[in-house]
Amino acid sequence: MSTTTALFSPTHLGAIEVSNRIAMAPLTRSRAGMDGVQTPLAVEYYRQRASAGLLIAEATNISRQGRGYAYTPGIYTDAQVSAWKAVTDAVHAAGGKIVMQLWHVGRMSHASLQEGGAAPVAPSALQAGGSVFTEQGFQPPSMPRALATDEIPGLIEDYRQAALRARAAGFDGVEVHAANGYLLEQFLRDSTNQRTDRYGGSIENRARLTLEVVEAVAGVWGADRVGLRLSPLSTAIGDTPLDSTPMQTHGYLAGRLSAMGLAYLHVVEGQMHSDNGADAFDIRALRAAFAGAYIANNSYDRQRALDATAQGRADMVAFGRAFIGNPDLVERLQHNRPLFDAPVAGYFGGGAEGYTQFTREQAA
Ligand SMILES: Cc1cc2nc3c(=O)[nH]c(=O)nc-3n(C[C@H](O)[C@H](O)[C@H](O)COP(=O)(O)O)c2cc1C
């Protein structure tokens, strides 16, 4: 296959057929209501980008407890389901495919975003760094409390309910968010997990929650419509220190997910928003441990995406920031047209400007 065609040819992720190898990475845009209900603007935003082979919708809170940022969407009320249904209908009408990213932030939250001002939950009572977006602006995350072992079944049930609601909302599948310093990654890394029960300690124990969540979600969807996102080398969110043996931990998880027949593994291949180049980690070995499809992400450009897909190093490449300012990214990459760099100021929050519309000078 010639280097220019692989990226633009169809493939499948488990049971999900896609028309090209370009995915839109999940992008939190913080434009939902405080009730987690998407607005008609989100319908337009996703519809505009439906020529991507796969849209991975922004991280979506599986429960009120799972929320860490104001104005992010949820999937735990009927109103949230109806609003998302309008999004998936529009994407499907435009010929696209869309999966929902299931999100629980764990310790990356603030008490003002929690029911009754409660402390956020985490594997262990360890303070996160960084900041979270609240109605009062950016604030440091609140000190979390450690989840009790007997709370874990309820947490897994929240994921299962979210998976059911995502199906009712018309998605093509779901992506379990086990990346970027959020709850499941907090369990995976020994830097953030100091538990002494069966969810802490050994690699098997630290991976247990993620695997139980995947099992519950796959019970709703079938494993061939479930993907999972990992970021083994990123500390970007919450200043989350790396695991002491990232290759072994993530390699073990990839092998177990492979045996479960998961549709795809989606990997942020380095420190988020830096160039890739992970010396201490063999991305190819991680990919080799997983039999399903592989979506590569992080600072890819056109040439690297062409190469990765032509060489079979990745089945798809997910672009994040490039999709913000270029709803027609697939067409632009196909014809090697210049890309527009959307202003960072419009990334989070606000209205149509910087979301579904850009001023003429900017978009030129
Ligand atoms: C505005 C913004 C919002 C993001 N929101 C999410 C998210 O909801 N879930 C997630 O897993 N990653 C999120 N990310 C990370 C992106 O999915 C992606 O991994 C990152 O931008 C690197 O890809 P890129 O170099 O193509 O932009 C976000 C990134 C940006 C810039």
Q: Which stretches are low in confidence, meaning pLDDT under 50 for 5 or more residues running?
A: none
Compute the average pLDDT: 95
Question: What is the number of strand segments?
Answer: 14
- Tell me the strand percentage band: 15-25%
Strand order, biggest sheet? 3-4-5-10-11-12-13-14
CATH topology (fold) name: TIM Barrel
CATH architecture: Alpha-Beta Barrel
Tally the helices: 11
CA-atom Rg in angstroms: 19 Å
Q: How can the largest sheet be summarized? A: 8 strands, parallel, barrel
Q: By helix and strand content, what is the structural category?
A: alpha/beta
Name of the CATH first level: Alpha Beta
Indicate the percent of residues in helices. Answer: 25-40%
Q: Any idea what the CATH superfamily is called?
A: Aldolase class I
Describe it for me?
It is built from 11 helices and 14 strands. With 364 residues, it is α/β, with parallel strands linked by helices. The chain has a single domain (6-363), classed as TIM Barrel (Alpha-Beta Barrel). The strands form 4 sheets. The protein has an 8-stranded parallel beta barrel with strand order 3-4-5-10-11-12-13-14, surrounded by 4 helices. A two-stranded antiparallel ribbon has the order 1-2. A hairpin with a 2-residue loop joins strand 1 and strand 2. Helix 1 packs parallel to helix 2 (78-93) and helix 5 packs parallel to helix 6 (246-259). The longest helix has 19 residues, at 203-221. The chain starts with 10 loop residues before the first strand and ends with a helix. The model has no long low-confidence stretch (mean pLDDT 95). Bound molecules: flavin mononucleotide (FMN).
